[in-house]
């Protein structure tokens, strides 16, 4: 049939969820559809069937299509480790660190890789739904763009632009996105979608009519605001500091379990804790300063793309002492991946930070060393009496652990992964909390350790079912609120001929 590029007026305008919704809608119609994002920038990632690494949003979009994640769905992934440098992952494998300026020199090579991956997918699937990156009108970056109009021009993709009306200024955003493009780019921009609308649609219609009149392009639909769309957020920037995650149901027992997740500056795979936030009676909050830990039952140190740097931040903010005090009071602490590494006695890092050996928090009697090659696996084992699966993405390795230190996960060969010492638990596995049986046992352990005898772990909560329901909801929103016949025509035939070109300096909307 064809392909489509979903662009956005800004980051977090709704590109990822709209692309996932279109994928789900098409898959339910029996269309063989695949997702694609030429270049993603995110520290939330997933391990693919090939043993590579891609952005988590593309893994979710693959699930919407009924597919296992593949490196071809996101051939270039940038993982920021600092304000001016990122790790570059190409076809699933880390190939080095780059600065913003040095990355520009690699764009031609990476553009060829991305276009080749897209061409292969288009030859194998009926439809490929592509997602842009940021905004297509970053005019300072247009010459080296490989993910937005650069990709659209190279592959002759029709483009729709989604804007977030909840932020305000959506008409200016949509109009300005089109007006700032060159005539050649404008020729592929076929229309608009408004996202996160609350209120009476009749109040919006005059603005939609004027947008159509001044641009010559249709609005394919208006997606309503839905509070229940919060799982698998593409970027940790979507989380507000000291903000509550999800909307938990009331507790089954008489007490809530309060969970404080430290929002590290370079937090990675923040979605690990969403499975906790989906449990009745579990209140999960991101925190950035020590006072927020004083009333927490459980503290979680999540993953980090810059373990040593984020550990230094913990010390400078006073959070390191607060976490140690929490554990000293006998209250539970969970470290995941980079957070697990921070719990060690020492960390020797000549790979990410290059600083060598530094002291950890000393809450687990382990030593961590960073290896040049990244561990990328999708393992299975048994933890707290429950069968578990997960995925690993890390340079850090456990170099020393005493025999008397309990492991958290038992592997099939008799080896152990992770560690448990009193109220402190750590693991390199992402996705561990998505295992329903383990999560219930973990919550019982955490509540008992914290003295929350009135908390009862709910039976029957299924995180996989919650994720499936969200994907179906996205498909429903596309089917019910977009002009799907027009969308199908766009996918099949490409951008219409003779679309109006807005001249530079065109008058603004009234």
UniProtKB/TrEMBL annotation:
Name the Pfam families for this protein. Answer: CbiA (PF01656), GATase_3 (PF07685)
Protein keywords:
Cobalamin biosynthesis, Glutamine amidotransferase
Task: Specify the CobQ/CobB/MinD/ParA nucleotide binding domain's residue ranges.
Answer: 5-230
| One Gene Ontology biological process | cobalamin biosynthetic process
| Gene Ontology molecular function terms on file | ABC-type vitamin B12 transporter activity; catalytic activity
| Pathway(s) | Cofactor biosynthesis; adenosylcobalamin biosynthesis
In this chain the CobB/CobQ-like glutamine amidotransferase domain maps to 258-437
Official protein name in the record: Cobyric acid synthase
Q: Which organism is it from?
A: Kutzneria buriramensis
- Gene this chain is encoded by: cobQ
């Amino acid at each position: 049939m064809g392909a489509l590029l979903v662009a956005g007026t800004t980051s977090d305008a709704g590109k990822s969820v709209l692309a996932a919704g279109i994928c789900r809608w098409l898959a339910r119609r029996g269309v063989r559809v695949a997702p694609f994002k030429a270049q993603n920038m995110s520290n939330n990632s997933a391990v693919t069937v090939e043993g590579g690494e891609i952005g988590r949003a593309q893994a979710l979009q693959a699930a919407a299509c009924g597919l296992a994640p593949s490196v071809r769905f996101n051939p270039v992934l940038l993982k920021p480790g600092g304000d001016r440098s990122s790790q570059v992952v190409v076809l699933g494998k880390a190939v080095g660190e780059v600065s913003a300026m040095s990355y520009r020199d690699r764009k031609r090579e990476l553009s060829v890789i991305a276009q080749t991956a897209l061409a292969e997918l288009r030859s194998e699937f009926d439809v490929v739904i592509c997602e842009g990156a940021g905004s297509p009108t970053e005019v300072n970056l247009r010459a080296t763009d490989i993910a937005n109009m650069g990709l659209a021009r190279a592959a002759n993709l029709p483009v729709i632009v989604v804007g977030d009306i909840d932020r305000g200024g959506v008409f200016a955003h949509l109009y300005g996105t089109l007006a700032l493009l060159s005539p050649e780019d404008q020729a592929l921009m076929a229309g608009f979608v408004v996202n996160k609308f609350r209120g009476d649609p009749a109040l919006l219609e005059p603005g939609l009519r004027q947008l159509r009149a001044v641009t010559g392009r249709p609005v394919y639909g208006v997606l309503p605001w839905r509070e229940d769309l919060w799982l698998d957020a593409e970027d940790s920037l979507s989380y507000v500091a000291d903000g509550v995650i999800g909307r938990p149901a009331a507790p089954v027992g008489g007490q809530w379990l309060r969970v404080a997740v430290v929002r590290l500056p370079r937090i990675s795979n923040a979605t690990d804790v969403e499975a906790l936030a989906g449990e009745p009676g579990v209140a999960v909050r991101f925190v950035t300063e020590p006072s927020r830990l004083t009333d927490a039952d459980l503290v979680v140190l999540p993953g980090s793309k810059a373990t040593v740097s984020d550990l230094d931040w913990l010390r400078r903010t006073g959070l390191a002492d607060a976490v140690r005090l929490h554990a000293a009071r006998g209250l539970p602490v969970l470290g995941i991946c980079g957070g697990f590494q921070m719990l060690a006695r020492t960390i020797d890092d000549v790979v990410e930070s290059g600083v060598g050996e530094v002291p950890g928090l000393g809450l687990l009697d382990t030593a961590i060393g960073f290896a040049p090659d990244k561990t990328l696996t999708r393992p299975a084992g048994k933890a707290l009496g429950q069968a578990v699966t997960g995925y690993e993405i890390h340079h850090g390795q456990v170099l020393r652990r005493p025999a008397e230190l309990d492991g958290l996960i038992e592997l099939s060969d008799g080896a152990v992964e992770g560690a448990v010492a009193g109220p402190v638990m750590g693991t390199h596995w992402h996705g561990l909390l998505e295992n329903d049986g383990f999560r219930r046992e973990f919550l019982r352990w955490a509540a008992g350790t914290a003295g929350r005898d009135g908390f009862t772990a709910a039976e029957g909560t299924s995180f996989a079912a919650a994720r499936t329901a969200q994907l179906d909801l996205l498909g429903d929103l596309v089917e019910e609120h977009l002009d799907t016949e027009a969308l199908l025509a766009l996918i099949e035939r490409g951008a219409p001929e003779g679309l109006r070109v807005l001249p530079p300096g065109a008058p603004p909307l009234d």
